[in-house]
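2024-03-11 09:14:02 DEBUG pipeline.ingest accepted 1 chain
2024-03-11 09:14:02 DEBUG pipeline.ingest length=605
2024-03-11 09:14:03 DEBUG pipeline.predict start
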Amino acid sequence: QTLTGPMKHTDTISIENMVVHGIVGAKPRERIKPQALVVSMTLHTDFSFVAATDNLSDAEIDYAVISKEVYTFITKKQAHMLEHLAESVAQFLFAFTSAIVGLELKIQKPSAIPLADFASVSIVRTRSDYPWIQPAGKQARAAKELEDVYLALGSNLGNRGLNLHLAIESLAKFCTVKSVSHLYDTNPKYVTDQPKFLNCVVKVTTSLEPPELLEALKGIESDMKREKTMRNGPRVIDLDILLYGSRRVLLSTLVIPHPQMQERDFVMGPLLDIAPPNFVHPTLAKSLEEIWLNLNKCPDIIPVWHCSSPGRDTEVVIPYHQSSPSQVMGILNVTPDSFSDGGQYSANDMPVIIEQIKKMYTSVKKMGRILVLDIGGESTRPGATPVSAEEEASRVIPVVEALRKEEWFVNADDVLISVDTWKSEVADKAIAAGAHVINDVTAGRDPKMFEVAAKHRVPLILMHSRGTPETMSELADYVPGKVVATVAEELKRNIQSALETGIYPWHILVDVGIGFAKNMEQNLEILRDLSTWKAAVGNYALVVGTSRKGFIGKLVQEQDPGRREFGTAATVTASIAGGAHLLRVHDVENMTDVITVTDAIFKGL
């Protein structure tokens, strides 16, 4: 095949049978060392654009320079297929000099198939095939403004959440990750007889052009041992380019926008978490929001938060859709001064603690729910005296370690350990000992807390508060009628800091902070308008802890926290009605019943 039309009259320069050693191949044995490749090029030039100035310098092509640059490019490039390498070389040449207006390129791999002639690929391209390539001057790549690129990621084999996490970390080798969507549990599409998927979308910027980016993504899939099975079949990881700015790309190996994105709820849902809803699809001429509405908002994609089990290649995926079961966070304080159960449990009496945890677990499991066991080693009641990190760790870590030795606990996939601490040092030790979740009532006052959560890839509960336990009662100075909006805005700043540190949305839960720097009227205002607060903060799993708190005692005129259970039950019901997902309670057995009945009323479960 040769160039036709006006291009056939251009001047041509040919470089024939140039031998280059490069790595081409998808199989590991093909990528051990470079192999001989034979490259032939016919380059078409057009000098007409310099007629106005008679300056031929920008149209000049130097045989030696072109040969050397192509040779260097191929030796550094590691392609999985000859087709990908040929596309990359063509784009490189168009970007290298504005003098080339068309080319014919053939690359042969003599060692590809024993006893056969040899594999080869031939392509014919013109500059119009790559409208995004804009060379700047003589034989130089153009500096250009980077565009927003949206990538879809999915996994349905192994530890799916961890697979997605590792893939996003790998993107950092050639992309800048700008934002990540929430995580969604989705039913398989097209081929339905396979495990469910976890899906997300990532926004990046990159200097790679679309075919180069595609090849880099295939490299991640290869590195993560993705095996080709049936089309749309099970996979450890899948990465697709959805959008590359407003570009339209139509190549044999790549089509952008992704040709099936508009029919995929598992793509459009997470895409709208991070892309402007009014962005117009370059091909369909419809906004992303219009496309999503045409899909009927697809209730089959469910937002989830995710935990990996320490030391095991397993995961716990907890849905928090409005129709998903509410879950239970059971409080276990190993402190001498907590407001309700201070002094009741001590790390020195481990059998009693283990027995109490078993009772909690049995109550929750009976109702088919997940128990998040929240272990605290420092009281955060108003006026409490702080303790050192060493003292707090000495109370919490033995409980975590003891649980990890219990056979029933090790074999259970419906109980998680949370450590209730604002100190990064304590959190780090607890996660290393086997805890799954960090519950930080200060939402990151310790600047290293976000780093610890990101390092361990664990969920982090961010709770709104002001000041310290010693000062928070004096800081409930909100503008009347604005407490909901103010608390949301303040916590959103902490959430953004967590995201910027590398914590992904499925590892962030939010807590409105009932009783922390809020008086009785403010607590009630928040509970009354909890759904508004949740919408303002974002689509995160919502934790609410009202259990036995002072404002309930004030309402029912009860000084003894242990006798505030009926008041607690009312607030638990109100919280679920307002969108709460995880209810933090002392009396796990009775409150699990309350949660179960409330779910039946409001969710039909």
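2024-03-11 09:14:41 DEBUG pipeline.report Residues 151 and 241 are 5 Å apart (CA to CA).
2024-03-11 09:14:41 DEBUG pipeline.predict end
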